[in-house]
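Whether sequence alone determines local backbone shape is best considered at the level of individual chains. The sequence in question and its structure tokens are set out directly beneath this paragraph.

===
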Amino acid sequence: MKLGGGELPHKSWLDKITTEIPIYLMRTDGHMAIVNSKVLALAGITKDTPNPEGGVIEKDATGEPTGIIKDKALSLINKILPSVTDEKNAKTFDMGVQEALKNGVTQIHNMSENAKSWDNIAIFEKAKAEGRLKIRTYFFPHISMRHELAQKIKKEGKGDEWLRFGGVKELVDGSLGSTTAWFYQPYTDAPETHGFALMQMDDLKQNIKEAHELGLQLAIHGIGDRANDEILKIFDELNVKGSRPRIEHAQHLSKAAINRFAELDVIPSMHPFHAIDDGRWAEERIGPERIKTTYAFKSLLDAGATLSFGSDWYVAPLNPIAGIYAAVTRRTLDGKNPTGWVPQEKISVEDAVKAYTINNAYAGFQESDLGSIEVGKLESWLIWLYWITIFLKLHL
């Protein structure tokens, strides 16, 4: 279901449908949800429930919860969700694999959002044993499971070409759409907030330090300009250069951050489709100045960074050709920017393809096996030659 722009939904909207059956609707980006009064009651959320660190329970002028729940406050809801059967997990997994193959995707980097995602490893391993894992996977558990992952690697190794381990994921802030991305300045259309960090920076630094010392690759989610600067600062202080640390999204950057990606050898792991989606409304949210360094593909390349592209699926389409189109044209989905939104950040087809192939291979320590057409390398991306040719004929 898609809701148009305007005011945020309210629990009363859902209560009109039912107050007896729980209703829980997640925003596309996974950082905000709307629930009805039944869910609030089951979760024990009242006007006296404080915001957890890194999360928000929206309340009205009287202090009553509105039903809007953001980021780490979602854990209060998630703990009451019914468990999912093994059969449903397998069915969902197989649907995801088919969606990847339908779009010509033969490998994914699977990013975990929380400690519970550790249980998903068993789903992947079972699928592999049964011959249902038909795409190569680099699995990143949440950083809270760093010691468990290190023990698993010590006992079993880093896996094989079908299911690999070696990195961990963490989230520093939320999303632009949910006004939970962490900025220095307030949101233009929500001046009461500038977003927030999902944890204390001292805790983040300690977790990153331990993961790095365990030999694990770091993939840290950063959306807002302050979130990205804080991550880069920690990477610099801990001297993780050479271990191919990544910032997932690297979405809204300070001007100073752009050069620091190359200087610190940090990989901006970006998702170009969001530029033509968010570009419809981002200026209303953060103003005309901050959008100049939003999805700064070309600036990062010009600074010497190794730009890596992905889909951020399920938040955005899995189709890599859609991502190439977005990076090359920056034509927003509403058709209002035919020459490109923030056009100075458009890049060439060649650079976009590199970001999806050889640069991605580098970001996953696979440049010797994947990413370019060479003798001895896997041929899983040859089909791209056909699709890229069609793309060029239709769109440029």
